[in-house]
């Protein structure tokens, strides 16, 4: 019966399939569905840019309008991957330009983006609307100028935490007067000056502008003028805030803020002086998202005053200067909180400045809707984690980072196995987990047993033996990304179930016990995996001994074999 | 469970020479952590930095820990951060002097930071006072030349430029401290808050 469905009907049905897993599943049903699906897929998500080639992607999805690509492994964020490792977007843009793809949206994470790429992008796709770059590098403001000049229908330019070389040009002035379509502009990560007058004019003519995040170079009096032009803003990022609460600028800012009643999300405040915070009190009542994690100048007292006014917060990113008491205030005020991130304020601090398990317990008791956590803390206990697990069974993302990576339970001095065990047992929907503190193989037994939905697991300085890693590989059926550093897992664990890695996106292991011999064996057995070894330093003269331990290994499934752009220090076995 | 530091390790393929009695703290962490088996951690500390041997272990760096993005780390480095110590308090804070525009600003911030201190009026001057015992604190700073000076005698910007670190001293100990202007510190004998 299903064979006689006209394609138009299938097409229509598939237009309601938006998630990638759903579309992937549909495409496997039969040839007919595969074909309809591939011609109707507009949004393509590629979690590892080396898993497939641009040409093959285009040939399977000729009508792609929106492409998301991720490059370097996650641990690149923490300096574990050397420069020039790879992840260059240029071949993708070249291929799409050649293939006359009607690209409208490009979202990149941890990729290398050159000015040349941006220029080609800007000139090849007349309907291009949205560019989102997260943790990327390799481009300068000249590349941004090309985007501004050429993308006539640009709606979104969102630069998050990129390393951008500032050429002191006038990239912002390159938006032509005819550009009125911007709805989102985020250049907070740029270090250099922008033409403030051009910015003011741009904001004035883009009546649909909803999200605006400015960099540190936009002075407070410009901020105030811009806000006056854009009371419809929903999301505001202001890195440079007023310093002097007695100033004229402060008064103007205060007045204009009162009119910005649509703002729901606030970020920035790099150098805010706590005495100037009252200027944002009027909008606090409506805020659903607040990011003060770049504002080390606000201490507990002021933070608490601010938080008291933010009763509708769903997302809060903060520094640990808030303290356990401050988190208690969050717990009693922000009943709708879903996501909390507490970052370390000082990486070399001496003494008890950070937050502890008390703050986390308070949050869990007060905020039952909490589903996403990133928590850097001085210490933790099993009892606290067990309580958190009971209070908040809805965690989807749970990342705990003790500042000392192998610290035991602060009260019992036991490993933190039981605490994390409680988390995975209680939170049946857990998809992402990072563990830390003193941990034995036992915690991995629990993870393997209970974390049925787990997709990403980060392990550092944990476990006793290969058994630990095996519990995870055998138990977590939905595991996609596993990243391990400084843990005693070796060849036995690596090679026990080689087929498992084809069901995963990638595996990272650094400073563990796997050897060259073990990696070679794996590579020989599994031709559809790229097993890459990263060698730094000059100890590696010629091929090393099989028994030698591998410092950094990154393996991933791929349909296109060893990558051709690997630098000298990356060996594909 | 047997005490951590006497537990026997299985012969595994990890880096050999595991030091089970190593008590090593993180950089800047003078408090010794009684952790159990350090496995890779101790080796990570020693192997990642060749210079580590020449420095006391507590100063050695573990690459990539805590896992904070480089972007964030670099951002937090901006500004002029100086350590602030308070006599009698077991912890230090760091403050970014560039975000304040005056001495008054700074002393307000101190009051925020060290919640045991409040600002009182002492003989018409704003002073930092311990709310528990009424003890007065005098802000002092170490300047570029290594001399300890009283805070407040030079223009604000000059102070920001030359200040290397701050110390809130009990005023009973601040006798004879150097100041830019040739005046002795005033000792408030009556306080009103």
TrEMBL record, chain A:
| Gene3D superfamilies xrefs | 1.20.1280.50, Ribonuclease Inhibitor
This protein's pathway reads:
Protein modification; protein ubiquitination
Subcellular location(s): the record lists: Nucleus
GO term, biological process aspect, one:
auxin-activated signaling pathway
What SUPFAM superfamilies does the record tag this protein with? RNI-like
Where the record annotates domain COI1 F-box, the positions are 5-41
| Alphabetic keyword roster | Auxin signaling pathway, Developmental protein, Nucleus, Ubl conjugation pathway
GO terms of molecular function: auxin binding
According to the lineage, what is the superkingdom?
A: Eukaryota
Residue stretches making up the Transport inhibitor response domain: 62-108
Principal location: nucleus
Q: Does the keyword Cytoplasm apply?
A: no
- UniProt GO cellular component terms: nucleus
The record's section on Pfam families has: F-box_5, LRR_6, Transp_inhibit
Question: InterPro entries annotated for this entry?
Answer: COI1_F-box, Leu-rich_rpt, Leu-rich_rpt_Cys-con_subtyp, LRR_dom_sf, Transp_inhibit
Q: Does the keyword Disulfide bond apply?
A: no
PANTHER family linked to this entry = F-BOX/TPR REPEAT PROTEIN POF3, PROTEIN AUXIN SIGNALING F-BOX 3
Q: Which protein are we looking at? A: Protein AUXIN SIGNALING F-BOX 3
Automatic annotation (TrEMBL), chain B:
* Protein's UniProt keywords contain Translocase: no
Q: Where is the composition biased (Basic and acidic residues)?
A: 1-10
What GO terms describe the biological role, i.e. biological process, of this protein? auxin-activated signaling pathway
| Cell location | Nucleus
Which terms in the GO cellular component ontology are assigned? nucleus
Query: Per its UniProt record, what Pfam families does this chain match?
Result: AUX_IAA
What SUPFAM superfamilies does the entry give?
A: CAD & PB1 domains
UniProt keyword Transcription, yes or no = yes
**Disordered: annotated span:** 1-63
Q: Enumerate the UniProt keywords alphabetically.
A: Auxin signaling pathway, Nucleus, Repressor, Transcription, Transcription regulation
Q: Taking every annotated instance into account, which residue ranges of this chain make up the domain PB1?
A: 79-171
Subunit composition and interactions: Homodimers and heterodimers.
- Hey, which family's this protein in? Belongs to the Aux/IAA family.
This chain belongs to the protein called Auxin-responsive protein
């Amino acid at each position: 019966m299903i064979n006689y469905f006209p394609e138009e009907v299938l097409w229509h049905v598939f237009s309601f399939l938006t998630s990638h897993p759903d579309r992937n599943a549909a495409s496997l049903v039969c040839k007919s569905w595969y074909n309809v699906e591939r011609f109707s897929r507009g949004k393509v998500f590629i979690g590892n840019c080396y898993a497939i080639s641009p040409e093959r992607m285009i040939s399977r999805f000729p009508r792609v309008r929106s492409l998301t690509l991720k490059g370097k492994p996650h641990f690149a964020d923490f300096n574990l991957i050397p420069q020039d490792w790879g992840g260059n977007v240029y071949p993708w843009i070249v291929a799409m330009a050649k293939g006359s793809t009607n690209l409208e949206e490009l979202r990149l994470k941890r990729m290398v983006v050159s000015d040349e790429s941006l220029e080609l992008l800007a000139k090849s796709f007349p309907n291009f609307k949205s560019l989102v770059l997260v943790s990327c590098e390799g481009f300068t403001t000249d590349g941004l100028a090309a985007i501004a000049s050429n993308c006539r229908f640009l709606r979104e330019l969102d630069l998050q935490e990129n390393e951008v070389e500032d050429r002191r040009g006038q990239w912002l002035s390159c938006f032509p007067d005819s550009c009125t379509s911007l709805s989102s502009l985020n250049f907070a990560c740029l270090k250099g000056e922008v033409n403030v007058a051009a910015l003011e004019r741009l904001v004035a003519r883009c009546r649909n502008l909803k999200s605006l995040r400015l960099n540190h170079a936009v002075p407070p009096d410009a901020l105030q003028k811009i806000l006056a032009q854009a009371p419809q803003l929903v999301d505001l990022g202001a890195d440079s805030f007023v310093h002097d609460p007695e100033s004229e600028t402060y008064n103007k800012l205060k007045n204009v803020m009162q009119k910005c009643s649509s703002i729901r999300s606030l970020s920035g405040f790099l150098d805010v002086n706590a005495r100037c915070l009252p200027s944002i009190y009027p909008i606090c009542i409506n805020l659903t998202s607040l990011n003060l994690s770049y504002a080390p100048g606000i201490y507990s007292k002021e933070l608490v005053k601010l938080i008291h006014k933010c009763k509708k917060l769903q997302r809060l990113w903060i520094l640990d200067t808030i303290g356990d008491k401050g988190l208690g205030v969050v717990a009693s005020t922000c009943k709708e909180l879903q996501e909390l991130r507490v970052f370390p304020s000082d990486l070399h601090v001496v003494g008890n400045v950070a937050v502890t398990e008390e703050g986390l317990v308070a949050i869990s008791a007060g905020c039952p809707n909490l589903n996403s956590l990133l928590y850097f803390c001085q210490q933790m206990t099993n009892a606290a984690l067990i309580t958190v697990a009971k209070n908040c069974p809805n965690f989807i993302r749970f990342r705990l980072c003790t500042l000392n990576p192998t610290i035991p339970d602060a009260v019992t001095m036991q490993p933190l196995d039981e605490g994390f065990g409680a988390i995975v047992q209680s939170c049946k929907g857990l998809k992402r987990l990072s563990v830390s503190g003193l941990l034995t193989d036992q915690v991995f037994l629990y993870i393997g047993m209970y974390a049925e939905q787990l997709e990403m697991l980060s392990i550092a300085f944990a476990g006793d033996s290969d058994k630990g890693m095996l519990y995870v590989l055998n138990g977590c059926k939905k595991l996609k990304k596993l990243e391990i550093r400084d843990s005693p897992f070796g060849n036995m664990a690596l090679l026990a179930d080689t087929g498992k890695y084809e069901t995963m996106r990638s595996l990272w292991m650094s400073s563990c016990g796997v050897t060259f011999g073990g990696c070679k064996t794996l590579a020989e057995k599994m031709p559809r995996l790229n097993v890459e070894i990263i060698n730094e330093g000059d100890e590696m003269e010629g091929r090393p001994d099989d028994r030698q331990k591998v410092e950094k290994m990154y393996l991933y499934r791929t349909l296109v074999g060893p990558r051709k752009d690997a630098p000298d220090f990356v060996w594909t076995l | 469970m047997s005490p951590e530091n006497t537990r026997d390790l299985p012969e595994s393929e990890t880096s050999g020479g595991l030091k089970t009695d190593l008590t090593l703290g993180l950089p800047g962490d003078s408090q010794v952590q009684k952790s159990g088996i350090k496995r890779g951690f101790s080796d990570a500390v020693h192997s990642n930095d060749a210079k580590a041997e020449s420095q006391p272990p507590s100063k050695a760096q573990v690459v990539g820990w805590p896992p904070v993005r480089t972007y964030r780390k670099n951002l937090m480095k901006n500004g002029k951060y100086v350590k602030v110590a308070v006599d009698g308090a077991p912890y230090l804070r760091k403050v970014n002097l560039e975000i304040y525009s005056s001495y008054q600003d700074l002393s307000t911030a101190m009051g925020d930071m060290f919640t045991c201190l409040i600002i009182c009026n002492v003989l018409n001057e704003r002073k930092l006072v311990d709310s528990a015992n009424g003890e007065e604190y005098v802000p002092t700073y170490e300047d570029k030349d290594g001399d300890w000076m009283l805070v407040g005698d030079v223009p604000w910007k000059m102070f920001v430029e030359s200040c290397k670190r701050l110390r809130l001293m009990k005023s009973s100990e601040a006798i004879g401290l150097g100041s830019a202007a040739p005046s002795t510190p005033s000792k408030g004998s009556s306080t009103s808050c």
